[in-house]
Specification:
Oligomer: single chain
Shape: globular
Number of domains: 2
Structural class: mainly alpha
CATH topology of the largest domain: Arp2/3 complex 21 kDa subunit ARPC3
CATH class of the largest domain: Mainly Alpha
């Protein structure tokens, strides 16, 4: 029963992350950022290849929203499952198993240079095939669309997967002490205050020349030096999510630009 509940929760989480990505889709039906790619890569690494049917079904259900042709969606969902599966296999095979997934430079390099690139490449191929089979993609647009989808999946994996894996590995050890300490809560409060200031308001012309996006770097350095890894990797998707929300709504320093460029 616990296994069934876990798989249902995993499928629901993936489904919601896929819908979130579609909500950020620009013209042409390409998601600017794909959180689902990061969820799939992290889940397959953490819980094994046996969960792939759950991810496939959840992705297929998300792909069916607003579409009529089934076979292109099936192909796309297969690629969205196969890509992260290859990335997870590569990360397990090439990283040092005696350390945490991001516990050394080698593991981090393998994750970025091999795991993320392989996962995003395969998923992007399936996405291009889906659009072409649906008759909404010209031959001259293949490469440009593939690059957009590759970037979308790669960013999603880089932002979401480290946070997911770190929480899975560390949850049992930090449940009692992490949020009872003052320092992590202080960092969270500062980050939320900066994010609210930057991304919840209209960008003022007088601030146009200021490097506002760099305001988060002191917090990231503070978290990296003074707190457990789980705090730092949690701040990254938090800041990214707040920035995306504000930018999509035309707020903050990036909200004044063209949609895809700003995001």
């Amino acid at each position: 029963m616990n296994r069934v509940a876990f798989l249902l929760a995993l499928g629901l989480g993936y489904y919601c992350s896929a819908l979130l990505g579609w909500a950020m889709a620009s013209m042409g039906g390409v998601a600017v950022v794909s959180p689902a790619a990061g969820v799939a890569l992290g889940a397959l690494y953490a819980w094994g290849m046996g969960i792939w049917p759950v991810l496939f079904v959840a992705d297929l259900l998300a792909n069916q929203v607003g579409t009529t042709l089934a076979w292109p969606n099936i192909l796309h969902s297969l690629s969205n499952t196969l890509g992260p599966a290859l990335g997870a296999v590569a990360l397990k095979a090439l990283s040092k198993r005696e350390t945490e997934p991001f516990g050394c430079v080698r593991n981090a390099f393998v994750f970025i240079a091999v795991s993320v690139l392989s996962a995003a490449s395969v998923s992007a191929v399936g996405g291009v095939c889906k659009l072409e089979l649906n008759g909404v993609l010209l031959a001259s647009q293949r490469l440009d669309t593939w690059l957009k989808m590759f970037t979308s999946d790669a960013i999603g994996a880089l932002v979401v997967t480290p946070a997911l894996l770190t929480w899975v590995r560390s949850a049992g050890r930090i449940r009692l002490r992490l949020f009872t300490t003052v320092e992590p809560l202080s960092i969270l409060a500062v980050v939320l205050a900066i994010a609210w200031t930057l991304f919840a308001h209209q960008h003022h012309e007088l601030m146009a020349g200021w490097p506002l996006a760099l305001a988060f770097f002191p917090c990231m350095l503070w978290a990296a030096i003074r707190t457990p890894t789980v705090v730092l990797v949690s701040l990254i998707p938090l800041v990214a999510g707040l920035a995306l929300t504000g930018t999509i709504n035309g707020l903050g320093p990036f909200g004044v630009m063209y949609f895809r460029h700003s995001v």
